[in-house]
Fold each of these.
Amino acid sequence: MRQLDTELRRFFARRIVRGALLLAVLIVLAAVTIGTVRGKPASTRTVDKPDTFFVPPGASSHVGENPDDPFAGTGTFTFSTSDTRTNVGKDLKDVLEGTGVALVFVAIVLGASFVGAEFNVGSLTTQLLFEPRRTRVHMSKAAAVAIGAGVVSLLVSGLIAASMYVGSELKGVVEGVDGAFWWDRAGDGLRIAAAAALAAVMAYSVTLVTKRTTAAIVVFFVQFPLLFLIEPTSKPFGFLSHYNPLRALLTVISDPKRTNPIFENGIRTMAGGVTLTAIWVLVLVALSNVIFARAEVR
Amino acid sequence: MAAIEFEDVRVSYRTRRGVVTALAGLDLSVPEGGVFGFLGANGAGKTTAIRAAVGLLRGARGRVSVLGRNVPRDLAGAIDRIGALVEQPSFFANFTGRRNLELLARTRGIGSKRVDAVLTQVGLGARGDTRYATYSLGMKQRLGVAAALMKDPELLILDEPANGLDPPGILEVRTLMRGLAAEGRTVFVSSHILSEVEHACDRVAIVAHGKCIADGRVEELLRGTTGRYRVRASDGRAPDVLGRSGWMVNPDGDGAFVVDVGAASAESVTRTLAEAGIFLSELTPVARSLEEVFLELTEEQA
């Protein structure tokens, strides 16, 4: 526990973590504030049709020729605008899921850079002179990365929910916001936090082996996204896309019961996403542990 | 029981240019207590041996044991009794020196009072709360020494501790090592500053090409004639007389001079001068320096 406590302190003392949190706070507050201030209720406006229209030279139709022509005949036009006010009850779920994808990628950067920075400055050497049991060090760091990324994700999700609720109360719509609603959104937030935590652990494990942050960034930001281009059912490489960890993470973040093209041919259920993510995490953590235990640390 | 034991330790690295042997069957036993100097040219295998002893290097063949524990298998059982500084100490640049030490201390359950004590001990008491990134090379080295001392270790392993230190800093490290040895602890120090090792160490081992080529008490290694004598005589003809006998004569300041008689004895010097009617006021054999011994042994090995 002492090792985990130390790793958590290291995690939250890092400038990149604090910077990411500060940036997230600023973006969320700015977005919700602008959305709230500019939000307008739905409106309908009716105007009379003019008696005559200007018909451009060479135009094939003219007033009254086509019975389906909205400009034909006499009467009124009706213009409608949709409700753009902040509506926490209606929009929060979508906002959380959309932000969840971004949070997973932020978690990947935080997880990879946590140990990448240590290899970069060589501080891991000093740490191993105090705790030579490498499995213990590895597991503590993995746990710290998971907890850290999860907490960052929860804080951001919480801030989004709170600011949207305040925006809705001040100048928006508060409908259907009851205990059950918050309970469901808490579930969404926890699901996203879990996805962020697991993504961070995967990125951390890759970096522990490659010893470079950029390697994990390339894997998670380029290689895995590129695998989406492969049709999951095609042979012989469709399985690479089907079992892509990013696909599994997206399944955990989003509600796969809803129609989403991402899930058409790949992992379709939450259980499938969770299982696939767990397998990826276990494999990467175990493999990196074996390699780290035998590696020379400089 | 030896503090550190290397038994036929072999380490090699695969590189693009082929296999590089860092340790080629290192055998060395470091006794408990005192300051033990570990000498070797760059690339001789000093740091590799130290890395193997503290468990940073895995996959070494042979046997390494520290304080009676097999390394790396049982190192965890002895780690609280070992303090080490390996190469350049590395800490988090954006944390203060104190914060860096506190994070390390926490993993071993060491309190903040001990952190303050070691910071003061290495002369960083006043700079403990400034960021590590602002430290000079010498201050970084001092922080590394502080980290090594934090566990109040029985065995202190220092890899080039004088790197980046100014002369007072080097003197402080020497005093510190002697002080720890006086308390019955073992200090194992690698260095390329031979004069420093000669002054600070009780025993030394010289390593070349991954093997130990000499090992013993400093005075034992320095024993033996150099064929040089410091001579002082009131008669100013003395250097010329000795020079005419075919010996190399060099002034040594303060009116004295050093004569290199090679394989001839001290008696030859006194006889030659006496025959010329010159009588000596001083005749002192010039002792070998560790540097000479080191160069002699490593050249032989080459």
Amino acid sequence: MKRILVGIKRVVDYNVRIRVKPDNSGVITEGVKMSVNPFDEIALEEALRIKERGGAEEVIVATVGPADCQQQLRTALAMGADRALHVQADGVIEPLVAARALLKLIEKEQPFLVILGKQAIDDDNGQTGQVLAALWQRPQATYASKLELTETSARVTREVDAGLETLEVDLPAVITTDLRLNEPRYVKLPDIMKAKKKPLETLTLPALGVEPRQQLKLVRFEPPPQRQKGIRVKDAAELVEALKKKGLL
Amino acid sequence: MSAKILIVAEHDGARLNPSTAKCVSCARTLAGAEITVVVCAVDAAAVAAQAAQLEGVSRVITLENAANQHALAAVLAPQIAALAAPYTHLLGPSTTFGKDLMARIAGLLEAPQVSDIMAIESATRFRRPIFAGNAILTVETSAAKLVGTVRAASFEAAASGAAAAPIEKASVAAELPTHTRFVSVSAAKSDRPDLQTAARVISGGRALGSAEGFKILYRLADKLGAAVGASRAAVDAGYAPNEMQVGQTGKIIAPELYVAVGISGAIQHLTGIKDARTIVAINKDGEAPIFEVADFGLVGDLFQVIPEIERLIG
């Protein structure tokens, strides 16, 4: 069966104003809205569109994380994924551990394409896709803004610092998504009901043979330094004057 | 044990990208570190010579291979990984080049990576922004080998000195994959300064209204010798190309002067400009969040204000 595997992560919703805990041990997540990482929604949307065009038969969504992640897997199922895999794990999941777990799922499911978000908006690491491609010894095409498939390869347009770069990669491959690849669909209420009946399989890291090792200790969280609030100028003349005074013009 | 740091040079075949000099500055903050730069290219001579001039670099290694024509992570990573044994830290810039490549190297080495290093506190302790810069995290590792990407906006570029470090040709026995092939790159040719290194940047938001509307920014930028950037909203709307995007998922910049025109100031945008020395905001909505971080704020119609500024600076 032609399968696409999509990795998703549960993160603090992008609209939430982040606050650091007073004891500097983390950020406040109690009572905070959690969502599917926006880049992963784009990854799922792309997989669903490929399937809808007849380019794949099944879209599997997977995550590594605590029990609560099932909410986001259900959202992904409501968007249209066929089934979900939940590798249950508590604590900090580093990219290497997530990639090892995803590799085990790849070995089991044999997808021809793996699509992930380019970064999670919580830790902003931006590593899992590349680490996975390295472990899998397969191509990576990161920061994708356009994806065209043939039977054996993918042509991927990437958003790079210089502009747009196009790569051709043999399949299977790992693709990571950038913002402009697509606009994810909204979930409709009947789909949420239907998603409750879709298969969601729970696994564990030990069952997959992956050691949940943490190599980076999170020592301290701090709020960023605040910029001092500046002054209002009344018109262009005053602005130019002020900038000249500072030696900026 | 003192740190031995390998920095992966970013270049276009002829010129060293300034982000590499910033990686060197970052590495130099670790006292006693021995800094090596590796240049992967078809012909590395010109770039290696530039890297060798950077103050603080003790050695440059070149890896020349016809497969290195384009910076493909899948091709470069095994070559760097094959060189990695003697080093304690492998660093690259937090550019799309470095972010794509370094994490693949980390994967090959099965080593942890610290992304977007903004400060090195010790050989094992680093500070980095998370949540779009809304929190700063200190991490500590016990790993013997660490990969990192360096947040360029946090460091001044290392100067080019008079003395040149020795340049050595190396070869590695890594098998290079052919599963990833370069097709093309479409980069807009521009005579304006590079957005990531420009001392002055003028950025436009959705309020510019069209690609046509951006022309008033280009005109002013050319008078000021400034680079032009854009908010995500403006890029999404097609007013400006993706390489102009400034913010969490675009470019993180630290110019002397940043002028935000018609940009409301979403947190994702502010993340990209936090390190600017002076921020100017021009917006017709006096309540826009951009004014919270601006050193100078002007509430007004940009289509009147911008030509006026242009006229005033003559």
